[in-house]
């Protein structure tokens, strides 16, 4: 199981803040594809990715138990 | 006493200043970011901040570490508030102490710029005419629904 | 409520921040100058500040006016303390509010530099080994007895 | 009468904070000369001058009733 966290506009689009996906040893881009099969209106293109609270890239490979956050452009401060 | 924190309670300037006070540091700069009522002609009613809390706190601490490397001898603290904020409420506080004032200014300004780049916190503007997650980290191009212009 | 003042009583960061708060200004910067215990290897016991009070207050107000011309939309307040100050006491406070943060930082730093150039206030350092009026406005070349190197 | 104000190190050298000089329509440099006749150890060279709380120059002419301040290099802030 990979836990996916959504924030801000993405959270509202999906209607939820967390999604669990059955997967293991998958790249972020693979994970995105799988996610978009169910949530096809989610716009993930502008979002940064964090794996276990660290910024990661499209080719980072995630394992079962990892937490992946999609981080839309931030606006704190 | 956390130097870097994300919390729902009101922020205190006095408290954060105390966190960085040191007898060898003669200069302290603070930055107070408050909720502005007017942005150009648009009137804000209130704001809502959301954060990926554990990661946001980590990123704030990372900014502090970066600053202490760039400006040796400085000490930094950052607090960011989340949840619903009214006009004039404090959204963010940055305090930097330093033996020398130049570094205190530079490190402080560095921190607010970095917050707007890398810290996973988002604000939703609530206007009379509607609401919107602000999505561009430098606040120049807001876009609806968290969706950037591609 | 004086925006620009020279006084013997302790200075309050909270108070000066309130003086510049405005609903349209989302950014406030403050500078807190405190009495430093150590300057290089020299240990300060306490300081004494003297001012040409009426002129010093005027000059502080002039700095505020200069800043508001250079950075339109900013509002500034400055308080300087005089008399005997102990380690960690606040000697000077500068607060600047602005709709935009860049101007708040720049105007604040401008003010402290100008204070060190034109405001008739002097500090006397008291060390274990003696005492000395500090005479160079940028604090780089102290000289004994108010006498500059000529 | 012209009132002269001294500060910081100058005040300590003179042993007083105010000096009155009988004079009228005198340039600052003339005033300095007169002052040094009595207080010959005063070092006025590094000091800025203010007349009635405004910065002035060596050739500013002061009248009776004016207040002249000698301002050693400042060290506030």
What does this structure look like?
The complex is a heterotetramer, with 2 copies of chain A (77 residues) and 2 copies of chain B (150 residues). Chain A is of the alpha+beta class. Chain A has one domain: Roll (Ubiquitin-like (UB roll)), CATH 3.10.20.30. Chain A is built from 2 helices and 7 strands. Chain A has a 5-stranded mixed β-sheet with strand order 2-1-7-4-5. Chain A has a two-stranded antiparallel sheet with strand order 3-6. In chain A, a hairpin with a 2-residue loop joins strand 4 and strand 5. Chain A is globular and about 35 Å long. The termini of chain A are far apart. In chain A, 34% of the residues are buried. Chain B has 150 residues and is an alpha+beta fold. The longest helix of chain B has 18 residues. Chain B has 3 helices and 9 strands. Chain B starts with a strand and ends in a 16-residue tail after the last strand. Chain B has a single domain, classed as Alpha-Beta Complex (Aldehyde Oxidoreductase, domain 3). The chains are: A alpha+beta (77), B alpha+beta (150). Chains B and C meet through helix 1, strand 2 and helix 3 of B and helix 1, strand 2 and helix 3 of C. Chains B, C: Pfam families: MoaE (PF02391). Chains B, C: InterPro entries: MoaE_sf, Mopterin_biosynth_MoaE. Chains B, C: This is Molybdenum cofactor biosynthesis protein MoaE. Chains B, C: It comes from Rossellomorea oryzaecorticis.
